[in-house]
Amino acid sequence: MSIATEQPALLGGPKTKGKPFPKWPIHDDGERQAVLDVLESKVWWRTPGTQTLAFEKEFAEFQHCKHGIAITNGTHALEVALLAMGVGPGHEVIVPNYTFVATASSVLCCGAMPVMVDIEADSHNIDPDLVEEAITPRTKAIIAVHMGGQPAQVERLQQIACRHGLDLLEDCAHAHGSEWKGRRVGSFGVAGTFSFQSSKLMTAGEGGCIVTAFDQFERQARSVHDCGRLPGEWFYSHFQYGSNYRMSEFLGAILRVQLRRGEEQTKRRHENGRLLDKLFAEVDGIIPQRIPPEVTRNSHYAYIFNVDLAKFGGISMRKFIEAMNAEGIPNQAAYPPIHALDCFQNGSYRAKLSGDQAKEPHRFLRQPFAETLRAAWESYWVPQYCLLGDQEDMSEIVAAVKKIQASAKQLV
Ligand SMILES: Cc1ncc(COP(=O)(O)O)c(C=O)c1O
Questions:
Q1: Measured from the CB, is residue 99 less than 6 Å from ligand 1?
Q2: pLDDT tens-digit profile of 84-99?
């Protein structure tokens, strides 16, 4: 039966996807042994341990950075990095409006105001022109998120940050191993932060890391993450405000093994992403996230594409997602716009601010954010583990889309 006449799986027809996608997380005897070794060593915390220390060094090297500081999770990594940059009450930090809440809530956690700006239509990353427009005398830092693994315009953002005396922080929660002109993300800003939560490109269930090239920043961030201690000083001296953001030895040990697969998995996801670009070029109404020529590797936390629903018989995005899921293609839900989240709309975010900032209107919370809205409500995210499959898996993703397009009238 040809695709054009097949009934969609949502209406009882045959499923497009044959064999299942690879299952995530991936592990083998390496992780099992690593956990057992830590267990038997009786050294379960990082301070006297060897595993987390080794992991942060190895991970920093993987990201082309001098230093790594292992952290409890990606949200805390952002918080520690911002605190180490000196972000505090009265400051503003520019963030993309299209991201996970942690990018903005970490700024509030420091008592500063996240200023949301819209994204570029084609890359889904923060728009550097809008960043420049949003700078005020209160601005202290810019956070760029590498959405779905696709590097933001790091060189332009770095120039803007330099010109205005600001710090650039790269939120690399999606982008382990991604490259801009052959250089890995996290190495362009003052620092980069990573997440090892379960859905991420390497995982220990939870976990995070800060990478940096700067010795002074490393010393400051390491101190903040360890209750304000300083290396080499008496255990009970606390030189500044800090908290306990330390990663345990179990997580460090698992992540060392996960990291060994990082190179091969990143390469595979990137190659499968380019194959999908090629296959989707034949499908009218599918607009994949554009990869600029400077991006030499996208580690693809997700393969993201926008759907022109008019080319799919005018079905709703919800119906498109349901139909894809029924065909056996999973969707990782895209983020809602940050400015529209309850905590910003109901004003509760103000509880984290002080002085004038707690009282004044925040105009940017009511901007139209056209591109963020489009990305949030009209894009499909194929999760990273699907891109660890083979060419047949990629063809089936595209075949499912074509089938839905051909049978869209039945789905309205
Ligand atoms: C862009 C972004 N930043 C930060 C985080 C926070 O990471 P974690 O879940 O490890 O706290 C996430 C997690 O999904 C994320 O997607």
A1: yes
A2: 999 999 999 999 999 9
- Give the per-residue pLDDT at 363: 84
Q: Predicted confidence band at 364 (pLDDT cuts at 50, 70, 90)?
A: confident
Q: Which of 229, 270, 297, 352 is catalytic?
A: 229
Distance 71 CA to ligand 1 centre (A): 12
| Residues 146/168, Cβ–Cβ less than 8 Å | no
In the predicted model, is pLDDT for residue 412 greater than 60?
Answer: yes
Taking the C-alpha atoms of residue 90 and residue 394, their distance in angstroms, rounded to an integer, is 49
> Is 343 part of a structural domain of the chain?
no
Are 183 and 266 within one domain? no
Only one residue has tokens 């990291």, namely 259
Does 173 lie in the same domain as 45?
A: yes
Q: Is 342 part of any domain?
A: no
The amino acid sitting at 384 is Q
* Distance (Å) from CA 106 to ligand 1 centroid: 10
- 135 and 200 belong to one structural domain: yes
* Shared-domain flag, residues 54 and 167: yes
- Number of Cβ within 10 Å of residue 376's Cβ equals 21
171 is catalytic: yes
- Is 236 marked active-site? yes
Q: Could you report the per-residue pLDDT of 221-242, keeping only the tens digit for each?
A: 999 999 999 999 999 999 999 9
Specify whether 11 is located in the same domain as 150. Answer: no
- Identify the band that residue 365 occupies on the pLDDT scale cut at 50, 70 and 90: confident
Co-location of 153 and 125 in the same domain: yes
The answer to whether 129 is a known catalytic residue is: no
Which pLDDT value is given to residue 1?
41
**Do 157 and 127 share a structural domain?**
yes
Q: For residue 123, how many other CB atoms are within 10 A of its CB?
A: 23
Structural domains of the chain, count: 2
Of 28, 78, 84, nearest to 257 by C-alpha is 28
